[in-house]
Amino acid sequence: MDALKIKKIGIDTYKENVAYMPAGCEICKSQGFDAQSKIEIHYNERSILAILNMTENGLVQTGEIGLSDAAFRHLGAPEGAGVRLSHPNPLSSTDLIRNKLDGDSLTKEHFLAIIRDVLAFRYSNIELTAFVIACSKQHLNEEEILYLTEAMIETGERINWGLPLVLDKHCIGGVPGNRTTMIVVPIIAAFGLPIPKTSSRAITSPSGTADAMETVANVQLSLEQMKSLVHQEKACIAWGGSLYLAPVDDILISVERPLNLDSEGQMVASILSKKRAAGSNRLILDIPVGIHTKARSQEDGRRLTRLFEQIGEKIGMKVRAVLTDGSQPVGRGIGPYLEAQDVLQILRREPEAPLDLREKSLLLAGELLEFSGEVEKCKGKAMAQEILDSGKALKKFQRIVEKQGGQKKLSAAPFQADQISPAAGKVISIHNQKIAKVAKLAGAPQDSRAGVYLHAKMGDKVQKGQAIYTIFAETEEQLRFSIQYAQANPDTVVVEA
Amino acid sequence: MDALKIKKIGIDTYKENVAYMPAGCEICKSQGFDAQSKIEIHYNERSILAILNMTENGLVQTGEIGLSDAAFRHLGAPEGAGVRLSHPNPLSSTDLIRNKLDGDSLTKEHFLAIIRDVLAFRYSNIELTAFVIACSKQHLNEEEILYLTEAMIETGERINWGLPLVLDKHCIGGVPGNRTTMIVVPIIAAFGLPIPKTSSRAITSPSGTADAMETVANVQLSLEQMKSLVHQEKACIAWGGSLYLAPVDDILISVERPLNLDSEGQMVASILSKKRAAGSNRLILDIPVGIHTKARSQEDGRRLTRLFEQIGEKIGMKVRAVLTDGSQPVGRGIGPYLEAQDVLQILRREPEAPLDLREKSLLLAGELLEFSGEVEKCKGKAMAQEILDSGKALKKFQRIVEKQGGQKKLSAAPFQADQISPAAGKVISIHNQKIAKVAKLAGAPQDSRAGVYLHAKMGDKVQKGQAIYTIFAETEEQLRFSIQYAQANPDTVVVEA
Predict the structure, then answer these.
(1) What structural domains and CATH numbers belong to chain B?
(2) Which residues of chain B neighbour A259 with C-beta distances below 8 Å?
(3) How far is A419 from chain B (nearest CA, A)?
(4) CA angle (B158, B159, B162) in 5-degree steps
(5) Which chain A residues touch B31 with a CB distance below 8 Å?
(6) CB contact under 8 A, B443 and A262
(7) Which of B95, B104, B262, B460 is catalytic?
(8) Helix H or strand E segment including A477
(9) Nearest chain A Cα to B204, which residue?
(10) B23 reaches A (C-beta below 8 A)
């Protein structure tokens, strides 16, 4: 068979490898390839698997093969290079998924085989979904969660800080706002303990820590920059996404997200593998408990705590979980810029700083200080408060920001709309997911200044006509989308007379 | 938001709805749409869901939206028509899948809700996969299989023949060749009982009954044509694919196939729903037993028998299963034309006609005659043989063929290669899937004359250098692919000295 010339045709399919061939081409006919066939594309010693689409529009000519952006990136061949096609060898690792679905247990070698094929982009979305479901909720036993975690660590990079004690904190998510990391990290570092923080961007939420930090500093740091910062300041707050830590996680998330599957084993493996690969050995875990979070009850929270602590122990990382209040957003801002403003108000000890976010940050920082063994039991929180109130935490944060590319000056987004209380009364509930959706429709996290600012929280009294929250957006249209959703969902914030 | 103009961009994605928008377009930015987002496309009162791909190649201009062939077909709007986009409402039926994965049982209403969304093309491949896995092997209880079967029937067309007795036969598959239907149907019809046969094309095999029948007659019949044939001849052998019988099955198969999942509940629901919707009320089921078929042991076969018979009873159809030998192909031809030649040899009572296919067809026809109540117990097979040997079955077949558009004259495919026995000995095994793959690589079923002709079957003695089987292909290249595979897989046919 003659070689086909690669054409990058400029179609972005996200992570999926798609190849495009002209309908009725001889190669497809002779090989029996059709739309949605899985084909293997060979370039020198490398190869990728791709799903085939047939084209009729002259987009791809006879003798060419079009590649989606992802396929082009993954194959790594220059445009115009010659490639050959073949039927892919059956993936033996998908047999393991079938066995797992039939009730078998998987070993660490099994998980490694699957993850290596996933990382080589040999799985279609259909097969990825099968793996994610095979691992969902009730299907992984504790041993399997450990094996999955280890396999996720071993198939990526690992950071070695060369330090005996490396602290970390993480929140399992589900609560908007809640930007404690940007307060905890400078407190711990100001105390003198190393806490090299790698954070993620938002996946389904209006902001991740990396998004909020990015409104005041650069977060795309190289490993060398991070090491230098930790050497000088004991801390950094960087985006972890470019470090190839437990890289399979991002691919699994691409199918977990649309399914909205509740998979404890996978969540535990995902979090612990990323933290261990990032070189941490003492992790404080924030587990918000509330009806719209991942731990719906104290019982759920305790089960997760045990799971995290036990698996953590086995991979050489001490984990302490803290169950926190997940009934409403923490802080007032929701969206990267607005959340960073909450953080700055607290670090600057401004009178209007949100108390709940301050209290929760002090609690977590205190727990972490005690967990390090450097501060006596029951004295952590007081120590954290002393560091915050003395201004040392602010100074530390400013030095970290400066060394991460300096303070950016942003002002509020131009389009704003107040959501007004229809009657006098008391705020009795704020729906975490719905208020997050309001912020996302307004543009968060892509537009960093977009989001929601809460003027009232649960228990606060409001007057008729008083603004309960303000929506911020970069365009009038996004503001309108967001308002429409808020008005169509009156249970976003409920006021009772 | 202004309307976007539809552009059919000539990309065939098989069944998946894909929409293409220019990267960085304002509508996507303002709505937060990105590559792989699920969007809803509205045209007048109709709407479809589609996965978004972003383009950079000028394929789609600002103000336009490109649609894949499937999306264009499903939306049903003319090119250039104006459409609007929105965020799709969350599918409530996917919650049911999550519940099922968590161990809940589903009711008939649940299955109906899911199937209606699937048929409206509201499911992505990820969600379809989740449903298929939720229903796989051990996950459906007998009640759920019944509900799924009923829901599959009720969401499609149903044929009413206006007859008290409507016979049918079906094979659950896994054995190449095995073209019994084209012999059983004329025997039953010549006896005088109605057997309006709707058959499928090959899904993963080298030929379905519809493919083989198509080499001698037209199989794309309208319901009116079928009814007229049944009125005049008691029988037809038509392709069932255009009749919208249990239509969700085809969509589910599009994700079941790549996963190669072993799902008894789904197989039972798939077969029984199609047969019931086709108006049958007495069904003989051929269940081949063998290590490379769906029933690997007699025990498997008996379990399937019970399941088919019980579910059949509950939907008003009497089912009788016959366990048959699935250890090797039945007949000599594999591929549409070659299988039809086997059938014609048997109907014409030619001396070289394959005995195993003849015997099996008589067994099934005899069982069906007894099952109808019109022939005494133990006398069915003799009656079937009498009809075949008297030439009545041939005459009936010729009349059916004539009324289905007349006999086509085909000759053998031009490129042929004999596979030679490396030594003298006895054929001790023929691998069903591997010999099927040889036939498929040669071009079957797309090229109707391509395939494999077996000169020796299990137990036959062969000389060194004797042809064990011949490969037929339309092109030299396909012949070469097929030979290559056969040579790389010597366990396709094993000769022992």
Answers:
(1) 4-86 (2.40.40.20), 90-157+244-271 (1.20.970.50), 167-241+278-403 (3.40.1030.10), 415-496 (3.90.1170.30)
(2) 94, 98, 126-127, 130
(3) 21
(4) 135
(5) 481
(6) no
(7) B262
(8) helix A476-488
(9) A32
(10) yes
Q: Does A55 contact chain B (CB < 8 Å)?
A: yes
Asked if B16 is an interface residue toward chain A (Cβ–Cβ < 8 A), one would say: yes
Tens digit of each residue's pLDDT, chain A (497 residues): 568 999 999 999 887 899 999 988 888 877 778 888 889 999 998 888 999 999 988 889 999 999 999 999 999 999 999 999 988 877 889 889 988 888 889 999 999 999 999 988 888 888 999 999 988 866 789 999 999 999 999 999 999 999 999 999 999 988 999 999 999 999 999 999 999 999 988 888 999 999 999 999 999 999 999 999 999 999 999 999 888 899 998 888 878 877 877 688 899 999 999 999 999 999 999 999 998 888 999 999 999 999 999 999 999 999 999 999 999 999 999 999 999 999 999 999 999 999 999 999 999 999 999 999 999 999 999 999 999 999 999 999 999 999 999 767 788 999 999 999 999 999 999 999 999 999 998 999 989 999 999 999 999 999 999 999 999 999 998 899 899 999 999 999 999 98
User: Smallest Cα–Cα separation from A195: which of A339, A308, A364?
Assistant: A364
Query: What is the distance of C-alpha A157 from the center of its chain?
Result: 18
B262 catalytic per annotation:
yes
Chain B: closest CA distance from residue A85 (Å): 13
HEC-encoded secondary structure of chain B = CCCEEEEECCEECCCCCEEEEECCCHHHHHHCCCCCCEEEEEECCEEEEEEEEEECCCCCCCCEEEECHHHHHHHCCCCCCEEEEECCCCCHHHHHHHHHHCCCCCCHHHHHHHHHHHHCCCCCHHHHHHHHHHCCHHHCCHHHHHHHHHHHHHCCCCCCCCCCCCEEEEECCCCCECCCHHHHHHHHHHHCCCEEEEECCCCCCCCCHHHHHHCCCCCCCCHHHHHHHHHHHCEEEEECCCCCCCCHHHHHHHHHHHHCCCCHHHHHHHHHHHHHHCCCCEEEEEEEECCCCCECCHHHHHHHHHHHHHHHHHCCCEEEEEEEECCCCECCEECHHHHHHHHHHHHCCCCCCCHHHHHHHHHHHHHHHHHCCCCCCCCHHHHHHHHHHCCHHHHHHHHHHHHCCCCCCCCCCCEEEEEECCCCEEEEEECHHHHHHHHHHCCCCCCCCCEEEECCCCCCEECCCCEEEEEEECCHHHHHHHHHHHHHCCCCEEEEC
The span from the CA of A20 to the CA of A35, in Å, is 9
Please give the residue of chain A at the shortest CA–CA distance from B445.
Answer: A32
Contact predicate B124/A258, CB 8 Å: yes
- Do the chains contact at A15 and B36, CB–CB below 8 Å? yes
Q: Which two tokens stand for residue A404?
A: 């991460």
C-alpha distance from B239 to closest chain A C-alpha (Å): 21
B301: tokens are 């076969």
**What's the rounded Cα separation, in Å, for the pair B493 and B180?**
23
CB B362 within 8 A of CB B388: yes
The angle that helices B392-403 and B336-347 make with each other, rounded to 10 degrees, is 140
Distances (CA, A) of A451 to A333, A340, B37, B245, B400: 8, 12, 21, 50, 70
CA distances from A210 to A179, A181, A206, B1, B357 (A): 10, 10, 12, 32, 68
Is A20 in Cβ contact with B13 (below 8 Å)?
no
Tell me the residue type at B432: N
CB contact under 8 A, B30 and A478: yes
**Does B14 contact chain A (CB < 8 Å)?**
yes
Chain A residues touching B32 at Cβ < 8 A: 440-441, 443, 446
